[in-house]
Amino acid sequence: MRGSQWIGPGIGLVLLLVFLLLPPIEPLTPVGMKVVGIFLATIIWWGTIGIHYPSILCIALFALTGVMTAKEVFAASMGNWIVLFLIGCFGLSEGLRVTGFSRRFALWFMTRPFVAGRPWMLLAMFLLACTLLGAVMSSTATCIVFMAIAAPMLETLGYKKGDAFAAMVMMGIAWAATASLAMTPIAHAGNVMMMEWIRGDFDYNISFAQWMIFGIPMGLLVYLMIIGLFRYVVRPDVTKITGMTTEYIREVAGKMGAMKSEEKLALGVFLVVVVCWMLPGIAGNILPGVSDYLDKLGYAIPALVGASLLCVIRVKNQPLLTFHQWMTGGMEWGSTILVAAIMAIGSVIGKPETGIPQLLTNIFQPVAMGVPFYIFLLISIFWVVLQTNVMSNIVSMTLVYTIMVPVAVAAGVGNQIALGATIAAASNYAFSLPSATTTTAIVIGSGWVSVGFMGRYGVILILPIALAFTFICYPFASLIFG
What we know:
Shape: globular
Distance between the termini: 52 Å
Mean pLDDT: 88
């Protein structure tokens, strides 16, 4: 590495050594000093190196420093059910992609009769399909599917990389895929992690149905913000989007033909798994035996069984999904290992014996009690939205939740369950930089969108999103989790 590339890793290492070697600083205990050192070093490494091997190193450091035994840290990280849940979800979404259903879903929206000859309606329907599909697939897979549709269409229309309209379309794909992240817990790690933290911290089980009641409206609201920004702020020349576009899209859709058996089977398996996730939360009184059984299975087992079935079911002597496709094209291993590391951090950082909860309370409780709650809330949400536009949404969510929710509990202000859910939902909305999320990195890496173009328009959304989640999402979530 060049000299400048050692700065971030070096600062993280120095911080780690300082907290390992210094005597405890009240109210931190010796264990608390180690945990803080590992946490701060890892945060810096995530921001300067990436989320992949620093996450593995973080897991190892808990055992190396004696904070946990090797058995304990493996159980808390890679052995956590959320990791297995994500593996299953990525397999399910990859099955929808490789069988062609995802592409068919996108093209259906673009071939509606009312879209013909209306370029802004075409764009709105295209990005709506991206948002809706992203609600049940990983944002990365969704982005790839829609870019594969958009790129040849733009080239056919004569657009080149760097043209404003083409850049807006590709940026819109990244943003629409991101807008879906708060809508459901399916294949969206941060939402599931927050559900698990709330269960552990407050003994409150948020069901899939409860999350979707506030998540879907907020995701659609963000989608409308994106369309409004494109229509009235970006305002590119759309004169090339004529009847030829409609004809091209219909031609592409026509080549797909009727829905194939493998698409139907992949969709059927996916829907059965979704029913298994949803049923305990909505049919407990109607089918108590079935609901209790599925509730005991949890979320990971149906996902793993469903993805495995896709590998077992064969059409024309070919599996719907090969294991290789699942583990390579379908898996986001960096994000999965990041989740494992954060679950390990979460298992120790809130323990009273570390002294960390008391330290955070001493620092932030006066703020929480000294200002109206909605000011405290706005600070929390603006913080997480601003940070997530720079680095990983899961890292941002973890930091803000770890600090602000315990303070709210200690101060006795607000609905802490709704606060945690709102922080998690808001942390998904990163639109400014390639370092923020995989979708922005993918479209910038494609060459269709420049960093400056995305950053110039993405930063405009930060304040509106923070205000929307403060004054719309939190009150809505408070009604659900009252």
